[in-house]
Amino acid sequence: MQPKHLLLVGLTLILFIKNSFTQDTNLDSLSSVHLDELVISSRPLINHTKQSKPLSTIDEYLNKQLNLTLIRRGNYAWEPMLNNMTNERLQVTIDGMHIFGACTDKMDPITSYVDVSNISDIQVHSGQDGTTYGPTIGGSIDMVRKKHDFCFPGWSGSVNLGYESNGNLFTTAGRLKYAHSKFFADIDFTYRDAGNYKAGKRTLVPYSQYTKYNASATLGVKLNAKNELRGSFIFDDAEHVGYPALPMDVAFARAYIASLEHSVENVNPFIEEWVSRVYFNTIQHQMDDTKRPEVPIHMDMPGWSSTYGFYSKIKASRKKHTLSFNVNAYLNKAIAEMTMYPKDTTEKSMFMYTWPNVQALYVGLNVAEKYAINVHHSVNIAASVGIHRNHIGNQIGLQSLQILYPNLNANKNRSIISTQVGYTFTKNNWEFKPTIGYGERAPSISEGYGFYLFNSSDGYDYIGNPTLKNEKSLEVNTAISYKTTKVKWNLKFNYFHILDYMVGVPMPEYIAMTIGAKGIKVYQSLKSVNIINTECSVQYQPITSLKINMALSYNFGRDYLKQALPLIRPFTFRGGISYHIKGLEMEVDLESSTKQYAIGKVYGENPTKAYAIVNCAAGYVLPVQQHSIFFKLGVENIADTYYATFSDWNKIPQKGRNFYLNIAFIFNSKTKTN
Amino acid sequence: MKQFFLIAIAILSIFTIACKNETIKPIDETEGLTLLQEMSNDSSSIELYTTQTGNLTVGYNDIYLRIKNKSTGNYITDANLTWMPMMHMISMSHSGPKSNISKVSGKNTLYKGYIVFQMPENDVEKWTLTVNVMRNGDTAVLTDTIAVKSATDTRKKVVSFTGNDGKKYILALANPQVPFIGINDFSVALFKRESMLSFPAVTDATILFDPRMPSMDNHSSPNNVQPTFSAIDNLYHGQLSLSMSGYWKLNFIVKDATDTVIKGEAISDTTESSSLFLEVEF
Fold it and tell me: Does residue B54 register a pLDDT over 80?
């Protein structure tokens, strides 16, 4: 280890720029979402010509991606799903940093602690392709921070303003950057304030308001020709967030995310890149039911989650081999408590730990190798091995879980392995890539140690099970694509056979805690489930200014008894046409879904109906010397359709008709040369 | 250098030995107990201790005793003790349920028993305690007034009831005295009132209990263990799971040896509470 690497230890604050080797979309079965096309970034700056709503929330942005679906519990903090799996089965990271929500009721997915202004890219890896930073079953979602370069010295920045008629949403965002050949500094902030939105047919959805403050800073220093040091910091604070699908709202959800990264390029002819990072993040989350007119019992439910971690990864290549190594470790501490205040004020308040200071330590190594046999054929192999340790740090919490598991020990160790083998064939405009993989995961904190966590969708209180076996997944993926300048099409298929699938099973002999709950479910290992996801997308560009897109998705999920799993997306179709002429860009798109044909009734799911909505937008770019001004005007859900998707919690309706306007002013102290 | 280490070790060991000598003290057998009062006659005195904050209160009370020979100043370790609590009311007097007194295992001077007080004292009505100390064929009798207060916690820790068999019973919560979240050792005392002076323990009853939180829609905790009788202390011992702090209602059903219900009802959707219950709040 170099002395400069040692310097990293103990420091915090940074930014990371991940170069490319996972970004090669042609070779990896990876889909990459380029946020820098919609938000000011160093190169394309805001690109109204490519994004219908530049100031969309990160949730709306993710929702546009075909392979992701989002669970909505309100108008804020949607929970992303990949391959029809939720965050327990995914690795959701920020620049590879692990960060875990502090809410026992999943009100704060990690994506809610960043804003589009903080990141440039969202990298989605399916299944075992996503194990770079830790074990996963369904895949990984990595939010990559803005890219920076030292090349264009001088000041640059932007001011963005947005307004949306539905919910009276105001957005203000700004950014200021100074760059130099030796260092750069970049700060940005976003403020969003939304009232209650209206669903279709002008139906008001109460408790759907939110306010969000987000600020981030990045600093970079070029130590010498090869070495760079970058610090990154994000502060995010959401306040008075309504969750109309849940019985409670959130008073605040606050995150501090800091990291320091060192990168070195071309260490020697073999090692192309060596990136190491230390990080720390802490989240505080406070639920709030005081705004609700009638609650069976008033309660406080605060949660805290802190994560300390590091990783160090090397990319190396020699002749036909491309190798990557990643050593990765983190320690997460999560505490959540619940205090309930009886209506009879002479009674003492009722207290319990819902997450008893559960510590999760993971240390793992991931190795991947790609071997190019010749121009047309290549194979890739990846393997990872890790140690996962849980520790219950709170004696009262341990005692409460011992009610259910009398012999429960405070510590639990697991080993987690995964592997993947793939083959890629490329010829002419075709690419064919089959892979197989095996992966494992440990239970999440709620699955392992949650204590009476109420699920308002199926109406059960959930209790964790520390004795759960590791969940194991066998997967098969195939991707076929064809690309020319006019036509692109893509067919993807993946099949997951998941063993010891962790799921809540009703325990009729236990009596519910939450008032009105149907009963208790304890997490158990289900023998197996099968999940299949298919996706087909076509893009046709007959002339440069006209583009037509179409995408279909079919998904399937059943347990070993052939009963439908919940939250499996029904048949979905999306299509769009865009046309641009000079500075003017216009687009129309359609979003639709059939009714839910496979309903996870045994898992407490209710069906959703078919829907189709149409959106349209128009944008104009006005260059002013080296600066630019952008205008964007759009309408979502033109027909004001009242609808809910399969992943809308308790079927809360989606937004009705919404007009929006974005104005952005981008300035540069110098004209860029490229 | 070597010499320096030898000297250092020598000095260290002296200190270690010195420290050890200092720490050897007479073992205080009443550590953790609170002295309630001292009863005395010409030859002996009895120290009464409790584990609680310093008062005897209505309900179940563990009481520890030490007997001192006044002439020698030594504690007596080989006596047999019996006792009798009495409530002197204006119109009448009565006793209450009590255990035998036995030596605390592992202790030299300490004796232990328990008494269930059904009512507190007031300005004119007081409790007295008579202790008989039998040793070497002699019996010394010591009597004194003892203070029995209402519990600061107003929750029901003892209940008197008339069973379906027409007999009078007393049910008291012995443990947990300091409840916590988790699995608590649980014990109750069940005594029959045969007369104002006779309160024998019921040894052959079946006691079923169902802990509930009325404020949480009658939430109950899992894996409670129903209490069974132990002749060692005449209490029924089980386990009580408390999944959270707050107010818990312990609903009871008491059955006699023929499995006939003496008192209490099972909890159901229509029956929120048994007519026989005790309370825990923490």
Answer: no
Question: What is the spatial distance between Cα B274 and Cα B267, in angstroms, rounded to a whole number?
Answer: 7
Q: What is the DSSP letter of A14?
A: B
- Quick count: other Cβ atoms within 10 Å of Cβ B214? 15
Residue identified by tokens 């929970």 is A79
Best probe of the B interface among A346, A403, A451, A520, by most B CBs < 10 A, is: A403
**Residue A507 backbone dihedrals phi, psi, to 5 degrees:** -120, 95
pLDDT digits (tens, 9 = 90+) for B214-267: 999 899 999 999 999 999 999 999 999 999 999 999 999 999 999 999 999 999
pTM for the model stands at: 0.87
Length of chain A: 674
CB contact under 8 A, B216 and A400: no
Residues on chain B touching A464 (C-beta within 8 angstroms): none
Torsion of CA A511, A513, A514, A519, to 10 degrees: -20
Q: What is the mean pLDDT of chain A?
A: 89
Q: How far apart are CA A381 and CA A320, in angstroms?
A: 14
Closest partner CB to A399 (pick from B180, B216, B222): B180
CA distances for B281 relative to A308, B56, B156, B250, angstroms:
39, 19, 10, 11
Residues 6+ away with beta carbon under 8 Å from A161:
A171, A172, A662, A663, A664
pLDDT of residue A18: 29
Q: What is the CATH number of domain B158-281?
A: 2.60.40
What are the sequence ranges of the domains in chain B?
34-149, 158-281
B75-110: burial string, b at 16+ Cβ within 10 Å, e else? ebeebebebbbbbeeeeeebbbbbbebebeeeeebb
User: At a CB cut-off of 8 Å and minimum separation 6, what does A332 contact?
Assistant: A98, A100, A305, A306, A307, A359, A360, A361
B218 touching chain A per CB within 8 A: yes
Exposure of A192 in the CB half-sphere (CA atoms within 13 A): 27
Tokens 């080797």 belong to residue: A21
CB contact under 8 A, B222 and A511: yes
Of chain B, the percentage scoring pLDDT greater than 90 comes to: 72
d(CA A427, CA A434): 15
Q: Which of A440, A349, A345, A406 is nearest to A135 (CA)?
A: A440
Q: Rounded to whole angstroms, how far apart are CA atoms B110 and B121?
A: 27
User: What's the rounded Cα separation, in Å, for the pair B281 and A402?
Assistant: 21
Interface predicted TM-score of the whole assembly (ipTM), two decimals? 0.82
Q: What is the pLDDT of residues A284-335, one digit of tens each?
A: 999 999 999 888 899 999 999 999 999 999 999 998 999 999 999 999 999 9
Residue-wise pLDDT tens digits, A39-95: 333 333 334 446 677 788 888 888 888 789 999 999 999 999 999 999 999 999 999
Contacts of B242 in chain A (CB under 8 A): 403
Which pLDDT score, from 0 to 100, does residue A10 have? 32
Same fold, B34-149 and B158-281: yes
Burial A482-511, CB ≥16 within 10 A → b, else e = eeeeeebebbbbbbbbbbbbbbbebbeebb
For the domain B34-149, what is the CATH superfamily, name and number?
Immunoglobulins (2.60.40.10)
Which domains does chain A carry? 3-668 (2.40.170.20)
